[in-house]
Amino acid sequence: GFPRTLGQAEALDRICELDLVISLNIPFETLKDRLSARWVHPASGRVYNMDFNPPHIQGVDDLTGEPLVQSEDDRPEAVAARLRKYKDAAKPVIELYKSRGILHSFSGTETNKIWPYVYTLLSSKIPPILSDEEN
């Protein structure tokens, strides 16, 4: 997400005025598990998730048969450290937008359960784009 720090939020304020900010509150363990399950084929950049989009053969790219690697940043210990650092940096940003009355928070663990609520909010704030035939 962006902005992640108060400095980034202040820089964003200088170029535009936000009227809606969405915060997705996902449990720490869910984030850690999802990020730690990510593996990549280095040559192509293809990303696999061992829970949601696993390769046909574990540890091997579907197209080339070459080995997959896990980034150091995606190892469980590193993910936990990144999430703690993000939480500390993001807290003042969340408080800023909450104080402005433009923060909308959604909680959950599954995209397909959170998305309908986000979509409803966005649909109420953004007018539909009409095609040329409808204008």
Automatic annotation (TrEMBL):
GO terms for molecular function: AMP kinase activity; ATP binding. Keywords: Kinase, Nucleotide-binding, Transferase. The keyword Transferase applies. InterPro entries: Adenylat/UMP-CMP_kin, Adenylate_kinase_lid-dom, P-loop_NTPase. The keyword Kinase applies. Residues 38-73 form the Adenylate kinase active site lid domain. It comes from the Eukaryota. Pfam families: ADK, ADK_lid. HAMAP family: Adenylate_kinase_Adk. This is Adenylate kinase active site lid domain-containing protein. It comes from Dryobates pubescens.
